[in-house]
Specification:
Structural class: alpha/beta
Strand content: 5-15%
Strand order of the largest sheet: 1-7-6-5-2-3-4
Radius of gyration: 22 Å
Oligomer: single chain
Distance between the termini: 55 Å
Number of helices: 20
Number of strands: 7
């Protein structure tokens, strides 16, 4: 798109509607007063540009990844060209293109694209979730279809910098000795919730920086937790059938500080015998800038093991041992996590993954994107209940810890959304508020639940 085009010209050319998203309509860049429009128009082009800039800036270092520097430099040029084309396609609302390389999930994506109605198969016309996932999947495909850059994580530097915070020391001191009680568990879940503020794809106005008195600090955020189902989560873990292995599954979101807090909660769950195993489901490819990929876990543990604080080193050694003993497990990577599909379609699209999650007593979905996929990118009424919005997705007991960074939400009391709108019309996009929502499996009333 020509940089000289005005916002009015863009909106007119691409049939942008100057309203918010109507209720029970898919979130989409077509609605100008939506976070989808802002993301597609402003945020995503910047993210592509940053990857291009990094490749150009670090090309000498990146060239050493291949067996032949010159060939790798040519591949870098090719990738830069593909990224530039993708950015243009995004900025001019082009239709999604099929995948035709070595992508392991290309058939899933190509079938999805082929089945989209022709009038919603482009960036601003499709559901926002589809457009954003498509962009990140295309970016990865450019690297996958090279010889030297197949495993290059172009977001790694940002993620690693995200862990270099004084906050981990404050947390490590506090969690050295903890009691098995609901209050302590509640504090750790809140820590994990607000750790989700650390999202590198979205600059949060007030970053959460833990202090030495981290639990006291967390109390000051209590009024910003709009839904707090911590007691139900605690009761769920307490009620687990101990005659068989009790598994808790994290569907991880961001690397860096948030992953550290995931590990802190997982440590507590194992240490207090609330579960016998904690599994971590991460993304198979670089995703939404700061999402965890398999290499982030060992790097995190290694970084923590070399920390200047003995408290942090102690945690790292313990967590490494848990991985060695099988108490912590990195789940097999699954490409469903980087598909465009909402989770209610998992049973049909990825039945193997659905059954894998069903093995767990509790699945903890972290972050905003997982929340969007749980609900589907739909403009639900804020008072619609969580069970309705899940649309039958209940492989087991589930909870979601999410700081609110997109304009969809459910389960709020009557009048709460209107109250928040009066305070700040953009409250759903700031990361200042959070939800801790729980749904037990039996509540769905489906056949599978009855059988179990």
């Amino acid at each position: 798109m020509n940089n000289l085009i005005t916002a009015a010209e863009f909106d007119s050319k691409y049939d942008i509607i100057d309203t918010g998203t109507p209720r029970h309509t898919a979130l989409s860049g077509r609605y100008k007063r939506s976070f989808a429009y802002y993301t597609l128009r402003e945020r995503l082009p910047v993210i592509i540009t940053e990857v291009i800039d990094q490749l150009n800036k670090d090309k000498d270092e990146i060239a050493t990844l291949g067996s032949n520097d010159e060939e790798t430099r040519e591949e870098i040029k090719t990738v830069v060209g593909c990224l530039s084309k993708l950015k243009y396609q995004l900025q001019t609302d082009k239709k999604f293109e099929k995948f035709n390389g070595e992508e392991p999930d290309k058939d899933v994506w190509n079938n999805f694209i082929a089945n989209l109605p022709s009038d919603v198969g482009s960036f601003f016309r499709s559901c926002w979730l589809y457009a954003e996932c498509y962009m990140y999947r295309k970016v990865s495909s450019f690297f996958e279809n090279t010889s030297a850059l197949k495993s290059f994580d172009y977001f790694a530097k940002k993620k690693k910098n995200g862990l270099k915070t004084d906050g981990i020391l404050g947390v490590a001191k506090v969690v050295r000795r903890t009691e098995k009680d609901q209050k302590t568990f509640s504090n750790l879940i809140k820590l994990n919730l607000w750790g989700n503020k650390c999202d590198l794809s979205l600059m949060i106005p007030k970053e959460f920086k833990p202090s030495d008195n981290v639990f006291e600090q967390l109390d000051s955020f209590n009024s910003n937790i709009l839904i707090d189902n911590i007691k139900q989560i605690w009761d769920c873990l307490e009620a687990a059938d101990r005659s068989k292995p009790v598994i808790v599954e994290f569907i991880n979101d961001n690397a860096g500080f948030e992953l550290f807090t995931d590990l802190v909660v997982a440590d507590y769950i194992i240490d207090k015998q609330l579960a016998t195993k904690v599994r971590f489901s991460v993304k198979p490819i670089p995703w939404f800038v700061s999402d965890v990929v398999p290499t982030d876990m060992p790097w995190t543990l290694e970084y923590l093991s070399k920390h200047e604080s003995p408290f942090v080193k102690e945690l790292a050694a313990k967590w490494k041992q848990y991985f060695e003993e099988g108490k912590f497990v990195l789940s097999p990577v699954h490409y469903f996590w980087v598909s465009p599909y909402e989770f209610y379609k998992m049973r049909e699209v990825a039945p193997d993954l659905y059954q894998y999650l069903a093995q767990a007593h509790l699945v903890i979905f972290k972050g905003d994107l997982n929340y969007r996929k749980l609900l589907g990118d739909l403009s639900w009424d804020p008072t619609d209940d969580f069970l309705t919005c899940l649309r039958g997705f209940q492989p087991t007991n589930i909870c979601t810890l999410r700081t609110v960074k997109a304009d969809l939400i459910c389960g709020l009391p009557q009048g709460k959304a209107e109250e928040l709108n009066r305070l700040d019309s953009q409250w759903m996009c700031t990361g200042e508020y959070g939800v801790i929502q729980f749904m037990e499996k039996a509540a769905c009333g489906c056949n599978e639940a009855k059988e179990n």
